[in-house]
Design a protein that fits this description.
- The chain is mainly alpha-helical.
- The chain has helices at 2-22, 25-43, 45-58, 77-96, 108-127, 133-156, 160-187, 211-229, 235-252, 257-265, and strands spanning 61-68, 71-76.
- The protein has a two-stranded antiparallel sheet with strand order 1-2.
- α4 (77-96) packs across α6 (133-156), α8 (211-229) runs antiparallel to α9 (235-252) and α8 (211-229) runs parallel beside α10.
Amino acid sequence: MRVLIVFLISIIAISSGYLISHYNYTYLLGVSVSFILAILAFYSPKMSLLFLVFSMLLSPEMKLAQVASNRALVIRYDDIFLIIIFFSWFFKNAFLKTRPFIFKTPLQTPLLIYTSVFIFSSFLGILNGYISYYKAAFYVLKYIEYYLLYFMSVNILQEEKDFSVYLKYGWLVLFVVVIYSYFYYYNATGTDIRATAPFEAPLNAPKESEPASLGGYYLVALSFLMAYASQVSGRMLIFSIFTMFLVYHSLLLTFSRASYMGVIAS
């Protein structure tokens, strides 16, 4: 056992030295965090899921390719973290077999149908030359990631107290995002300034922002807040209404027409 531990430490040390000498610190940081997350997800899936709550909107982006003259294909670090956490959790369930891999939910069938439709439509678009396979593949994978997160969350969170804890941290992330959106809108320089999420665009390049992404996040948050407000009273009702006001005003500052239409639908 000691020999194995020494061997693993040696491998990690050699790998770290190679990465430090050949790559910049951001890649090294990403690899290090990914390695820690893989271990964390195996031994404590709930903690790794909590990490995702913060990283999905508060992690930096990486540019992969330029898919149009004014549009780049980017991924966040949380995209990588999500895949690592999912497979670590998957292998744990596969080897230990302490509980069912997937619990049945009312959303499984609609999600599978929707997934099949957009995969098939993307395939047709590639065959007809309407879209590049490179761009289509990454956007399809982005959708599938969220479904993996859904199935993983349903299976990991089983007790009511767990949902309460995660919702509180989710509200904290929402508050940080809203505050940042106001900061960005009132401090950015240039033309077409709009509210945006953290790490999406520098202050001197507002045209690089993705306001529709932030608007979609706000739509989900507003829908939940309205549902929550209908079930509470007193201070919690006032708190919910105040949060909705902050979110709604920030959504208006995105100037996203799709988000405006989504407010009506929600």
